[in-house]
Every structure is written in C-alpha cells, then in structure tokens.
Amino acid sequence: MSNTRKTTAAEGQKHDGFTVEERDAMKQRAKELKTSARRGAKADTESEVLAKIAEMAEPDRAIAERLHALIKAGAPDLTAKLWYGMPAYARDGKMICFFQPAAKFKARYATLGFSDEAALDEGTMWPASYALTEITADVEARIGALLRQALS
C-alpha cells in the first residue's frame, strides 16, 4: 500500500492518515475475515476471486485472468481467495502471492506480490513484488519460475 498522506479539501475529503483507497482495502479485509469466520474453511473462495476479477477494468482484468490461470495450472494446490479485496493464493491458509490491480490504488502498473511465506530468499535481499503491465510468454515463464521457487 502507499504511504499515508493528508488529503486536501480540494480532493473532496479532509483527513490525516490513510488514503480513501487504503481505507477501502482495510474495510474489504475486515469483511473477508468476518465472512470467512461465518462460513468456515471449506467455502468456495475461488468463485469470489473470479467475480472480483470480472469487476476489474482493462488492462487489469486481462492480466488478472491470465495470472489466475497460470497460478492454477502451475500451483494447483494453492487456494484462490480474496485478500484486502484483491485476488490472492494461499497454501494451508497462508497467503503466498497476490495480484494488486493498478486501478485499486491508482498506480501506474499492476503488481504480483509475494508474502514472507514464499521461499524467494536470495542472500540478504530479494524482490517480493513485481510490476506487471502485460503478460507475455517471457513473463509467463518468469511467473512459473517464481511460483516454483516460492513453493519450494
């Protein structure tokens, strides 16, 4: 998420702290946790992820659809679920990676991010998120390699 900042009156709201988008993401996460607690661990969360992807505007939707297909094919043991209102993929209930659409935080590019549960360690410093503007054959290969490493 982006840094906190003060929204000006010219932007329509006046507050200190989180942006409107960040507050919305936190509200979505609280709703996800409440829903998850009510329905139990065996719920069909993939349909929720697919519905969230379908709501996205282009090019985020095309990237998210392709990424979802790549993850399901390359790591079928991962469970699709929502995380802060974004598509995420978990193993044994622990989030491994997620897709952050560019539009969610008005960013220049979408992001494929990995949690600390992903085994991406390389020495004392390594990337944990990757900018995505489109998914090409080379990008698909890189994502596949990252998933294999993350799950090793």
Describe the structure.
- It comes from Microbispora amethystogenes.
- This is YdhG-like domain-containing protein.
- Residues 1-20 are annotated as: Disordered.
- Residues 61-121 form the YdhG-like domain.
- This protein is of the alpha+beta class.
- It has one domain (14-150): Aspartate Aminotransferase, domain 1.
- 39% of the residues lie in helices and 18% in strands.
- The chain has helices at 20-39, 46-55, 60-74, 137-150, and strands spanning 79-83, 86-91, 94-100, 110-114, 129-132.
- It has a 5-stranded antiparallel β-sheet with strand order 1-2-3-4-5.
- A hairpin with a 2-residue loop joins strand 1 (79-83) and strand 2 (86-91).
- Helix 3 (60-74) packs across helix 4 (137-150).
- The longest helix is centred in the N-terminal third of the chain and has 20 residues, at 20-39.
- The protein starts with 19 loop residues before the first helix and ends with a helix.
- The model is unreliable at 4-12 (pLDDT under 50).
Q: Any key phrases for this structure?
A:
Aspartate Aminotransferase, domain 1; five-stranded antiparallel beta sheet; 4 helices; 5 strands
